[in-house]
Amino acid sequence: MTGRRPVAxxxxxxxxxxxxxxxxxxxxxxxxxxxxxxxxxxxxRPRVIEQIATAIGDHVRAHELDRILVLLHGGEPxxxxxxxxxxxxxxxxDQVPGGTDVQVSMQTNxxxxxxxTLTQLGRAGIRVAVSLDGDETSHDRHRRHRDGAGSHATVxxxxxxxxxxxxxNLFAGLLAVVDLANDPAEVYRALARFDPPAIDFLLPLGNWxxxxxxxxxxxxxxxxxxxxxxxxxxxxxxxxxxxVRLFRELIxxxxxxxxxxxxxxxxxxxxxxxxxxxxxxxxxxxxxAYEGAVDTGxxxxxxxxxxxxxxxxxxxxxxxxDALGAECRQCPLVMVCGGGHYxxxxxxxxxxxxxxVYCRDLAYxxxxxxxxxxxxxxxxxxxxx
Length: 385
Hints:
Layout: E1 11-15, H1 46-63, E2 67-73, H2 82-95, E3 101-108, H3 115-123, E4 126-131, H4 136-140, H5 152-162, E5 171-177, H6 184-192, E6 198-202, H7 222-235, E7 243-244, H8 245-254, E8 271-274, E9 279-281, E10 295-299, H9 305-309, H10 312-317, H11 326-329, H12 334-337, H13 359-384
Parallel strand pairs: 1-2, 1-8, 2-3, 3-4, 4-5, 5-6, 6-7
Antiparallel strand pairs: 8-9, 9-10
Helix pairs in contact: 1-2, 2-3, 6-7, 7-13, 8-13
C-alpha cells in the first residue's frame, strides 16, 4: 500500500464456538461454500484464548489504541456457556493496557438466553445483540431448529427477559437478514417493538457467481426497493425510534461524513477474525464466496497482528477507492456506496474487482435516501425563515 499507513485493527471477532443449535438456511458458516468448519474445534480452548488475548494486547500497545471492540461470535457462542464467555472477556481485558476502553459484546440467536445467563454476562460487562428477522412468519421462514421447528417464540421470550428492567443495559441491538418475501414495514415494526438501541439490516450473502434470492441480471432493484420502504417506515416513525445503522451510515455519507461499516462507504476495514483453532482470518462472511476465501495462512501461535495488517488481502481492502474496479471508480455514487460490501463483489474468474451484485439496489436506496434527506433540509430551512 504505497504511500499509505495501514489502519490498525479495532474490532476483534472471536469464533468461540464452531457449531450452532439452529440450522438457518442462509448461514454463511454452515450452509455456504466453505465447509471446513467440520474440521475445526467445536469450542475454543483456553490456551487459544490466552494467545489471542496476548495478540490483541500487543496490537493495542503497538498502535496506542484508546478503544477496541471484542465480539464473541460463532456458531452460537452460548453453546460454550456463560462462564466460559466471562472468562474470555476477563482474559482479554487482563492483557489490554489500562486506559484502553475494551467493549465486549456477543452475537447470539437468543435460544439460550435466560435470566441466569444474562446475570453472568452483566457482571462481566458483556453486551448482547440478538438475531431476529421480524415477526413469527418472517423469522421462522429461515431461522429454524434442525427438526424444522421455528425459533421465533423462544427468541421473543428471551428478548422479553433481555429488555426487562434488570438487563436492559446489556441490550446491544437486533440483527435482521432481509428477505424479499417479508413486508419491510412490518419487519421494521416487529423489530422496533423491542425498542432496540440499534437495528442492523443485512443483505443476504451472495455474489455474481452465486446470486442472492430474487437478484436477477436485469434492471430491477428489489432489495433497494425493500430497504427504501423500510427506510420510510423508520424515517416516518415517531421521535425516539431505534437507530438503523445502514440508514445512519447512508445519511452520514450523503452529508459528507465517513462510514463506520463495511457495508457501504470507503473507510478502511479495521476488523479481524480469530477462529476456534487460533487461525487469523478475514471477515468471515467471505466463506460465502468460495472455500478458503477467509484464509490468511496466519495463526496467533506463529504471527502477530501486524503480520495480518501486512497481508496482501488486508492491504488491498484497506486501499478503499483504489481497490475498486474501473466501473465503480467512475460511478457518481461511489463516495457513498463504496462499491458495496466486499463479499458481494465476487465473481469466478475476476475475483472481487467488480461492482456489488447489489449495485442497482444500492443505487436505488442511495437516491431514495438522498431525496428524503433533501426534503428534510428544505423543510428545516422553511421553518427557520
